[in-house]
Each structure stands twice: as structure tokens, then as C-alpha cells.
Amino acid sequence: MISLNVSLGERSYPIYIGKNLLSRPELLTQHIPGNSVLVVSNETVAPLYMDKVLASLTGFKVKTLVLPDGEQYKSLETLNTIYDCLLSNRFDRNTTLIALGGGVIGDITGFAAATYQRGVHFIQIPTTLLAQVDSSVGGKTAVNHPLGKNMIGAFYQPKAVIADTETLSTLEDRELSSGIAEVIKYGLINDIEFLEWLETNIDKLVNRNTVALAYAIDRSCKSKARIVAADETETGQRALLNLGHTFGHAIETGMGYGNWLHGEAIASGMIMAARLSEKLGWISSSDVDRVIDIIERAHLPVRAPAKMTADRFIELMKIDKKVSDGVLKLVLFKAIGQAVITTDYTEDALLDAIKDSY
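Below the sequence we write its predicted C-alpha cells.
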């Protein structure tokens, strides 16, 4: 087992990464301060791992809530289902919510924890690669709105993250590739050495080599923990983690939540960011090809969805969270492995980069 720490003063917490961690009750129970627990999962994950989690919670007052599976259920309506369960079972402020699932479950359960009685305890047990390397770490919680992804949320840190790599054995290939997109992101934004390792080992990740996966998860979590510790609420450099996300969130919203997986949309978005960076003269066409190549080898989309026009992209991007005083900040490349947060582009160049991505 690898143990990392997200250093945030009194809100610091550990990330545990390893095999069969769900069979180690002490990892979970040491982070539950009260005696009441609500475990939130979904219809896909609960049949696989709920019993293991419940076996660790002997002696606690435990309720479970199983939600529908899918990005389209990361909504205010589903959030209210969690509140209904908490209130009807008279859960108090010393309750702990446990999120057992992927990014949707982690985000919506975390937001429920942040807002129920002004904040209760919260533990992440991510079961997808995307959640293990990205969404479970850093305290971003949210639900979607029909007009924009993750537009209603809060920064709220968990008490712990328990990433059992054995859960990846039941992950569908498409979901695995979706998670690899976020792994690639870490190399592209500020870790050229990791990117070079990925270029050599991407096939091992796709083929579920356990040693390669463990290394990628560890490296990704260390990178994110370091960035979050320096900029918890995304007032500065944490925004680098949004590489591809403004384009990608537009895809998710425009295509309808759940039609493109998050990592698929982000992969396409990172290529758009690379194309715009090339148009600005910051990187070369061979650099763009390098980004496309590793994304394609991860079995991820390298084209924008044909059903979305470039004008529709612009429309949706203008209501993104990265808009400040009417100006959209984008994460682009000064070099591969050197991302920057910038407004130094023209809308014409942005439009051309999107059009070149079909």
C-alpha cells in the first residue's frame, strides 16, 4: 500500500492506494468520528463492492443508498434523494457519508456532505481509474445543471481517499480509457518525464498491467496533491488541471450528459487546446501530432463530435466556470509539458482551432 498526504493544514487527509484495501477495515473506520454512516453508491458498483464496505462497518449505525448509474443523474433531483434519505433517517451533524463509486458518486455525495446541516464528514472510495487519479482528490464537489457541467458545487475536502486498485478489474474498457485521459493530462501540463513514461507504457495501461496502473495512479495523485496543497480553491495554478476541460465540458453539455464519458470529452478537448496553441505559434504541428498520438493509443476520441457546431462550442464555453468578468481563461501549451493559464488568444483563432478538430 502507498500512502500519500494532501497537505491542507487542519483539512489535510491521506490517500491510500493499493490492492485489496476494502478488506482492511481499519483504513476506513479510523476516519469515522461518529457512529452513523450513510454509504452512497450506484446500481453498477453496489452489487460488486457494497458488501465489502459494510463488512468493515460492524458496530456503526449504517444505511445505504443506491442511485442510478450515469452522468445524467448527477443532478439536483438526485441530490435531493440523498437529502431525503439523511433526513428521514434522522442523521445528525456527526454523520459520515461514504462515496462508493466513480466520479459521479463522489461529486454528488461530496456536495451532499458539504451542504447537509452545513457540513458533515465524508470519505471517498473511488472505484474507477478516473476517480482514483482525479475526481476523488482535491475536494471539488458538484452537480450538473442543464446549461452547464458542475456549475452548482462547493470545495469540500474528504476525511480520506481509499483507492483499491482491485476495483479496476471490473471496469469496462471504455471507462478505463476515460480514466487514462486524466492520467495523460498530468504529463501534458507539467511533467514531461511522466509523459515520456506514458508514451512508452500506454499500451500496458490499456491492457491493465497492474504494475503500470499502480505507478500511474501514484504519480497522478502525487501531482494533484501537490497542486491542491498549493492552491486549494483554484485561484491560481490549480486551474492548470483544467487542461481540455473547458472544451470537454462543452461536449458533455452539448451532447447530453452521459453520451460522451468525461475522459473522452477531455481527450478531445486537450487536442483542441493543442491546436489553438499551435495557431498562436507556441507549439509546432509535430507537438500537436504527439498529443493526438498518445490519446489515440489510449483508445480515446481524437475528433470533436460531428453533431456539435463550432459556434455551439463557443456558446457553451462562454458559460463555463473559468469565465471571469466576461473573459474566458483557457489552459494552453507554451510547450508540451508546460501548460499555462491564459486569455492571450483571439476568438477567431479559437473558432479555427475548433473547426480543425472535426
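The chain has 13 helices and 13 strands.
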